[in-house]
Design brief:
460 residues; seven-stranded mixed β-sheet; binds pyridoxal-5'-phosphate; alpha/beta; 16% strand
Length: 460
């Protein structure tokens, strides 16, 4: 076994190009550690090649809603692969895609009835932008093409989705990107530039900045605004009260499409099928992926209103867009089985029933000097780390480097918690465990975080 593991390590170092990975950290010549190799999952736990167990505090990557090792989802995949392994949705259809489209439409709010499948989240984000541009060209407003999105928000890595992303550091190596995207403020009330003590006034202000940006660019040039129900990057920014309602008014006033990017927030992460439902707003488009299959197969979707598909239902008009693997038979069959399990096991109800316990358990960490803020909703939380709680002073670049990359990520993992320490905005620990977790798992997360954060503070 050790021989096999050594070979696997060597092959990983020689051949596997990992995503968003600083490869020197795995190079023995540069003092690197071994590549963490996960071989198995069961429920809320992952197991590495040495047999060590980790609590999956991030549901893989906001994906594994139902947890790991489920035979029903694996069998749904096998059954579909035996029956029809592949057929594209290019002018043809197959039953799993048809049934899933109807099912997803039945969950989506209002008349979000048209489902365009993709292979993942970034492709859904791209698809929504292309639809917005094409729709306005077909409906007499051809100048509308620009996109607004929020600072620090992540919307994917393809060139269009990356252009919409609000993280300059992630974009710099690939500039020039697709032009015509612009930033508006996010809803980080912990660091609000104005109205920090009045969530409603802050929400109104943040939403109104979208109107300001539309006015600045010219309403006849702006096609869409992309917003996550709870923004992940930066460490979980839930919407202040009234925020999305005001955004809806602004979008209606200027005829700008409201895109709810729910790649993370849909399918139970916030205790509902869609985040828009939780916060009571009606988007024109929802983009989703990840939890749609709980990760048992890759799949994404763009869900659009009837109005947006209308021009494509006439004469020779075609939406000239598609992906070979978008709506793959195996993935759509798995998604149907996943949604069956959501219903049968009352997964959303479980999240709503226990989210208060999760919050209370994480909030215990506020007694630590390094924990500045605990924020989120549902099973989706960010813990912001600070140098000084009173002044909210954050860490500088060197300290972030030492704290997050040098110590925290590794120490959390060594202590049995797989999650993410992130400094794309201010330094945060991101938590999004499988939706099957309960108090025992919440306690385990809290206890590991406490031990590791105490050590981190002592090292500073
Ligand atoms: C909000 C949001 N949009 C889009 C994406 C891109 O999804 P994918 O990695 O499946 O392309 C992500 C990925 O995490 C995301 O969080």
């Amino acid at each position: 076994m050790t021989g096999d593991l050594d070979q696997l390590q060597q092959q990983a170092r020689d051949h596997l190009w990992m995503h968003f990975t600083r490869h020197s950290t795995y190079d023995p010549a540069q003092g690197g550690a071994e590549v963490p190799v996960i071989v198995r999952g069961e429920g809320a736990y992952l197991y590495d090649a040495h047999g060590k167990r980790y609590l999956d505090g991030l549901a893989g990557l906001f994906v594994s809603q139902l947890g790991h090792g489920r035979a029903d989802l694996a069998e749904a995949a096998a059954k579909q692969a035996r029956q029809l392994a592949f057929m594209p949705l290019w002018s043809y259809a197959h039953p799993a895609a048809i049934e899933l489209a109807a099912r997803v439409a039945s969950y989506a709010p209002g008349d979000l009835n048209r489902v365009f499948f993709t292979s993942g989240g970034g492709e859904a984000v791209e698809t929504a932008w292309k639809l917005a541009k094409n729709f306005f060209k077909l409906t007499g407003k051809p100048g509308k093409h620009k996109v607004l999105s929020r600072t620090i928000a992540y919307h994917g890595t393809t060139q269009g989705a990356l252009s919409i992303t609000g993280l300059p550091v992630m974009k710099a190596p690939f500039e020039p990107l697709v032009p015509s995207t612009f930033r508006v403020p996010n809803t980080n009330i912990y660091r609000a530039p104005i109205h920090g003590d009045d969530p409603e006034a802050f929400g109104r202000w943040a939403a109104d900045q979208i109107a300001v940006a539309i006015e600045n660019e010219g309403a006849d040039t702006v096609a869409a605004v992309y917003l996550e129900p709870v923004q992940n990057s930066g460490g979980c920014f839930p919407p202040p009260p009234g925020y999305f309602q005001r955004v809806r008014e602004i979008c209606d006033e200027y005829d700008v499409l409201m895109v709810s990017d729910e790649v993370i927030c849909a399918f139970g992460r916030l205790g509902h099928m869609f985040g828009a439902e939780r916060y009571g707003y009606q988007p024109d488009i929802i983009t989703c992926a990840k939890g749609l299959t709980s990760g048992y197969a890759p799949l994404g979707a763009m869900i659009a209103t009837d109005r947006l598909m209308e021009p494509f239902l006439e004469g020779d008009t075609t939406f000239l867009h598609g992906y070979t693997f978008g709506g793959h038979p195996v993935s759509t069959a798995v998604a149907l089985a996943n949604l069956d399990a959501f219903e049968n096991e009352k997964v959303n109800e479980h999240v709503r029933d226990t989210e208060g316990d999760f919050r209370r358990t994480l909030e215990k960490l506020l007694d630590l000097p390094i924990v500045g803020d605990v924020r989120g909703d549902g099973f989706f939380y960010g813990i912001e780390l600070v140098k000084d709680k009173t002044t909210k002073e954050s860490f500088d670049d060197d300290e972030c480097e030492k704290l997050l990359r040098g110590f925290l990520s590794k120490a959390l993992y060594e202590n049995g918690l797989y999650c993410r320490a992130d400094d794309r905005g201010d330094p945060v620990i991101q938590l999004a465990p499988p939706l099957i977790c309960d108090q025992q798992h919440f306690d385990e997360i809290e206890q590991i975080l406490r031990v590791v954060l105490e050590k981190a503070w002592a090292q500073l």
